[in-house]
Write a structure and sequence with these properties.
- It is a single chain.
- The chain contains 8 helices and no strands.
- The chain is mainly alpha-helical.
- α2 packs antiparallel against α3 and α6 crosses α8.
């Protein structure tokens, strides 16, 4: 997202706060897909993700009067989502041993008519998603915000309430861990797909 989106978000927030419901609908439409994708991939459970998604929007609407334009709306919103997800994970007493579930991936099935390069790309993304799913939560959050939310590192740091160096370190270790996991599981490095 560019600077114009940053300014547009701020105007939409102000418009919504002045009573124009359509402004909120535009904000919601803009962030619905990347936000839900981020939450789903972080929690790895569709029901929990749907709950956290609703909780995120409820908290965001309640906190909108306190939103300050000096921060990007996307990092502010993803920060709320991250906190909702972390609250959920803290409350969860047992974790599934197999955190990967095929129905949680947003992927297309190979139907035989798909060109080979698309089938290969789909397979690469599936392997990468499985590897991301195995990362520690802090690293996974940074990767998912960066990839699915397309959020700049500076804004990820703001959303996660940590330093830019911490975020960059988490991304560095995430890529290092992904390379290792992918080498062990499929014998090749697919981290180029992240860029």
């Amino acid at each position: 997202m560019g600077m114009n989106d940053f300014q547009t978000d701020a105007r939409l927030v102000q418009s919504y706060l002045s009573g124009k419901q359509a402004a909120f609908e535009k904000i919601y439409d803009r962030y619905e897909r990347p936000l839900f994708s981020y939450i789903l991939k972080l929690l790895r459970d569709r029901t929990a993700a749907e709950d956290a998604f609703q909780q995120t929007w409820m908290q965001a609407v309640k906190a909108l009067p306190a939103y300050r334009e000096q921060s990007r709306f996307s990092s502010w919103l993803f920060g709320i989502a991250h906190n909702c997800c972390m609250d959920h994970l803290r409350r969860e007493t047992t974790r599934r041993e197999d955190g990967f579930q095929a129905d949680q991936l947003d992927r297309r099935e190979h139907d035989g008519g798909m060109p080979d390069y698309l089938a290969e790309k789909n397979e690469e993304l599936t392997h990468l998603a499985r590897a991301i799913d195995q990362l520690p939560a802090e690293q996974r959050a940074v990767v998912l915000m960066r990839v699915h939310g397309e959020i700049p590192f500076k804004d990820i740091a703001e959303a996660l309430d940590c330093s830019l160096n911490t975020v960059l370190g988490r991304m560095h270790y995430a890529v290092k861990n992904l390379r290792k996991l992918l080498k062990e599981n499929i014998g090749e490095d697919l981290t180029h797909v992240l860029s």
